[in-house]
Design a protein that fits this description.
Layout lengths: L1 H16 L7 E3 L4 H7 L13 E5 L12 H7 L3 E4 L6 E4 L4 E7 L9 E3 L4 E6 L2 H5 L2 E6 L2 E6 L1 H12 L5 H20 L3 H9 L3 H11 L5 H7 L1
Parallel strand pairs: 2-5, 5-7
Antiparallel strand pairs: 1-2, 3-4, 4-5, 6-7, 8-9
Helix pairs in contact: 5-6, 5-8, 6-7
């Protein structure tokens, strides 16, 4: 696990050197180390088990830096995995898997979205704009990175959990969401959760409330009612 964190920081360092950290938003479970400092008053202490490191790119992409991401990762020992069934590319290493994502628009697409300036293609996902529109700058081990606000991360996790086909992954998403939302509340930022929730479309709100109802999340359920 220590090697995994070292590799993660090495990638961020390489991306920083070519200006990419100003262009990307780190999403997914690897946000958690950054949240630990943001939520230091809550006792939040996450455990990361996944290899997946996901970077989101706002659309339309306005990346000013030019970089060959594939070459950068290849120098770190990653291999390029081209999925023939859908054309998506990800970068594999024994410690980590790096992928790039963009918000899904309209009816969506099952084809990759090309980002020529950095030489990657990205997968379009629903609900991603919610994360990209609600970000903060956080720090971990001296690296400053744009990440979704912890409240946005938690609410997004609840929505995603309702779409999971695998019960184990859905349960993991819900546990992570409740842990981080409770930490946000303990830090005195309940108002951020309430604000973001109130700005969501009504179907999203209903999906979150329905997902929370059977869980041991009484305070949060009543707070969002």
């Amino acid at each position: 696990m220590e090697n995994r964190f070292e590799m993660f920081l090495e990638i961020l360092g390489k991306f920083h050197d070519c200006g990419l950290l100003d262009e990307l938003v780190l999403i997914g479970s690897w946000c958690m180390p950054f949240y630990k400092k943001l939520l230091s008053g809550s006792g939040y202490s996450p455990t990361i088990r996944t290899r997946d490191v996901d970077f989101a790119i706002p659309q339309p992409a306005k990346i000013k830096s030019r970089a060959d991401v594939g070459a950068i990762l290849k120098d770190e020992g990653f291999v390029t995995d081209f999925r023939q069934e859908d054309g998506f590319v990800r970068y594999l290493h024994p410690e980590l898997i790096v992928e790039f994502l963009v918000p899904e628009k309209g009816r969506g697409t099952d084809r990759p979205v090309e980002i020529p300036s950095i030489g990657v293609n990205a997968q379009a996902l629903r609900y991603l704009n919610f994360l990209l529109e609600n970000t903060v700058i956080a720090e971990y081990e001296g690296v400053r990175m744009r990440v979704p606000h912890p409240a946005a991360y938690g609410l997004h996790k609840i929505i995603i959990s309702s779409r999971r086909k695998e019960d184990e992954k859905a349960d993991k998403d819900r546990r992570e969401a409740l842990e981080i939302l409770n930490a946000v509340m303990l830090c005195g930022e309940s108002f951020v959760i309430k604000k973001l929730f109130s700005e969501m479309p009504a179907p999203w709100q209903k999906k979150i409330q329905k997902t929370l109802e059977p869980l041991d999340a009484g305070d949060l359920v009543s707070f969002l009612s």
